[in-house]
Amino acid sequence: MSSVAFVLIAVLTLAAALAAATLQKLMHATLSFALTFVGVAALFFLLGAEFVGLALIFVYIGAVAVLVVFTILLTRRDVGKDRGANWGGAFLAVAMFGGLTWAILKTQSVAIAAPHIRALTVRRIGEALMTSYVWPLQCVGLLLTAALIGALVLVMEEKQ
Amino acid sequence: MLQVVLIVSAALFSTGLLAALSRRHAIFILIGIEMMLGAANLNFIAFWRFSPQSQPPTGIMIAIFSIAIAAAEAAVGLALVIAVYRHYRTTNVDHLNQLKG
What we know:
The structure holds 2 protein chains of 2 kinds. Chain A is built from 6 helices and no strands. By secondary structure, chain A is mainly α. Chain A folds into 2 domains: 1-107, NADH-ubiquinone/plastoquinone oxidoreductase chain 6, subunit NuoJ (Four Helix Bundle (Hemerythrin (Met), subunit A), Up-down Bundle); 118-160. By secondary structure, chain B is mainly alpha-helical. Chain B has a single domain, classed as Helix Hairpins. Chain B has helices at 2-22, 26-50, 58-88. The N and C termini of chain B lie far apart (50 Å). At the A-B interface, helix 1, helix 2, helix 3, helix 4 and helix 5 of A face helix 1, helix 2 and helix 3 of B.
């Protein structure tokens, strides 16, 4: 794992996340949100989980970000600005970050270097999905169908 | 090295929390929740990478399922935002105070 690339991608991801959380213009914040997930996917690539990184890009940039843009345009009257960070939220977020960092640095067992691992091929993931994880896979299929139908029912026009 | 990844993930989580707590636009509260989910996925992948090999790769599997569930959640959440907008003509959560005592 290249540390220069890691630092660059981490800084980019966190800057984009901060922009998504605080920018006042909604469209700019949405684009920063997409950029955040590009960064997270790049971190996945660096950690050796290429398939999950690709899935993240497909799902978040291909579907969720586009859906968010559509929703912003459909709720057009509010297009424009949103208040950025306020003090209470910022204080809680900083406190959360401080607490988590303290806990991570205090835990000795996570101060380890990366072991050498066998490359994760799509074949291995597919085999695991079709053998040990076949019930969760079916349940996720059911969940996605239910979510699709539920979303349609929620946005359907009511006939008077 | 695992510590660095965990700290990056903690920072991403805190930023998502900041967005969820301080935004007033419903869609951006949802975006904050998505960022927190992304941070959790990053943790799963990091722990998978830094732990001894396992077959099946459990961390990868949990991350894949979590991405699928996050997609379903985003679809339903955005549909809810559109439905609320139709009724109340606003997406500002401060104005949705009909049930307030």
